[in-house]
Predict the structure.
Amino acid sequence: MSTSSLVLILVVVAVVLIAALVTGVVLTRRRRISLTQKEETPRPGGYQASSGISLTPAAPEATTAEAPVPVEHPVAERTEVDGQPGVGDDASVPRDSAKRGFVEVDLPEEASEVEEIEPTAGRLERLRGKLSKSRNAFGTSLLGLLGAGDLDEDSWQDVEDTLLIADLGAATTTEIVSTLRSKIAGSGVRTEAEAQALVRSVLVDALGPTMDRSLKALPHAGKPAVLLVVGVNGVGKTTTTGKLARVLVADGRTVLLGAADTFRAAAADQLETWGKRVGAETVRGPEGGDPASVAFESVKRGMDTGVDTVLIDTAGRLHTKKGLMDELGKVKRVIEKQAVVDEVLLVLDATTGQNGLTQARVFAEQVAITGIVLTKLDGTAKGGIVFQVQRELGVPVKLVGLGEGADHLAPFEPGAFVDALLG
Ligand SMILES: Nc1nc2c(ncn2[C@@H]2O[C@H](COP(=O)(O)OP(=O)(O)OP(=O)(O)O)[C@@H](O)[C@H]2O)c(=O)[nH]1
């Protein structure tokens, strides 16, 4: 290779090296400028912690003199990352970057505690699953027996036993069995569908479908309706009163609750909580105070404030049965000094069977019961108690409790009830 060729090669190499050096310097400078510009010019439409979203200044402790001096860093202004790199950021955020303090955020005005309430219409249909224990023990076996075709005496005995076990009571059972026997003999039942239709009509008839089950809970003569809720300890009076308040509020009514159960300390708290959930006022007295006085004050307050309905929860336990009954009589008399008691609702626990009936008799002797609320039907296979209690007292079951949920109180409808039992 000649000397001139060697010189030429050296010159070319030198030019390439110089060009590479110049390009590298330019690229480095451009990158730096680009970073600075991103910081100085807000990205249109991009997330900016200090714009669009209203934030108050950081909590005082983050801005005190003792706070560490923030380290200069492209992401130092970002408050949402607590020093951790975000997408597109340089990952080398120093560990000693200033940590974000507490940020005071303007909250909307305190949320209303008043709850959404399920519509009351069609509740029995919606809650029919809650009657599954009774359905399995009663409806299913009854249909199985009757749908099997010609029934001999043993089969009829089984039908009778099924009804008795479901707590329909001897009198109602005898009546239903004899009606079924004559109807089946007269018309002949060949299929399960026919058996179902026949049983349905006989059971619905036995539930007195024409009884007036309306709740007298609307104001009249310029005064609120007054409802007394009575029953023994633990049957679900307070819960029912609370659920009933929801039913009324859902219907657009205004309600006041009277906590006349002064015997059990927590009862008034429990009732007040129910009231708050639907925006209803609760009148209460001192623990161990005079229930009649609380009832009187409740009705007075209800009239003064112009509510549609006053619901009064009473005690279920006293030292003696006589004491309880005397007190109940007094509560009612005292209310009647200023308003009519429109309903006395007797709450019975469906799971207590015959015991519940005995209670019902005692209460009915003391105060004129106008309606029955049968609670805890969800927890029993003995839904047949509905038949018996109505027959015993001659008073309609107006409401049924089908669970501990706030809206698990349904109007009692014979047709829907029997349908739920028969599946
Ligand atoms: N599963 C079920 N539980 C219910 C029903 N109604 C009420 N309960 C529960 O029965 C328990 C007693 O209810 P309360 O309302 O405190 O009874 P109470 O009659 O007011 O009791 P005292 O104030 O002691 O007289 C509570 O745990 C209720 O959640 C219902 O329909 N189904």
